[in-house]
Write a structure and sequence with these properties.
Layout (H helix, E strand, L loop, with lengths): L10 H10 L22 E3 L4 E2 L6 H16 L3 E3 L7 E19 L6 E18 L4 E16 L11 H23 L3
Length: about 190
């Protein structure tokens, strides 16, 4: 019977793996792999989107998500002020709806109520170079949806609408950043 072999891993390899593992999925990127803005822009202003809906604060949520996403994905300066930047991303939120998609009924009665909903947000955005008002990127009628459920127990009720809006905002920002950065010439 052969004696068991001892497998050893070089200490340098273990150290390298230990140092790389925590950042593997954290959004860190090599500087050269970051996206570039269209039109050679090096800095980006993202002022608060105009809110044309009756949903208070949605403009803050979507704008904050855009600022964070572009800060992560572009090497240049990203600012909430449009002044002093090479490009400005501006737009408006034109509609927000919350539509029931699944229904339930009260146990003691026959009243019907929504148990899961879809939030839909429509917006128009454009990336403009302030120097000459050239439109570098534009998308009208952007539509994003996010589903959320209501807890059927009144005692345990917690509105899932705000967490759903935050998830929607992250998806919105990632999609917009991807579309804008793909538009940039290499």
């Amino acid at each position: 019977m052969a004696a068991p072999r001892n497998l050893t891993i070089p200490a340098g390899l273990l150290l390298a793996l230990a140092l790389c593992a925590p950042i593997a999925g954290c959004g860190y990127r090599i500087a050269g792999s970051m996206g570039r803005l269209p039109g050679g822009a090096q800095s980006l202003g993202i002022p608060t989107l105009r809110n044309l809906t009756n949903q208070h604060g949605i403009e803050q949520t979507l704008t904050a998500a855009l600022l964070e996403e572009f800060s992560l994905r572009t090497p240049g300066r990203v600012d909430s002020r449009p002044t002093g930047t090479d490009a400005v991303l501006m737009g408006e939120i034109v509609e927000i709806t919350s539509t029931p998609v699944t229904f339930g009924t009260e146990q003691a009665g026959s009243r019907t109520f929504g148990t899961s909903f879809v939030i839909t947000v429509r917006s128009n955005l454009r990336l403009v170079r302030p120097d000459d008002s050239a439109v570098l990127w534009q998308s009208t009628d952007l539509v994003f949806r996010e589903r959320y459920a209501l807890n059927a127990s009144i005692a345990d009720f917690f509105s899932e609408e705000n967490p759903a809006l935050k998830r929607l905002a992250r998806a919105f920002a990632a999609s917009v950043a991807g579309a804008v950065l793909e538009r940039a010439s290499p």
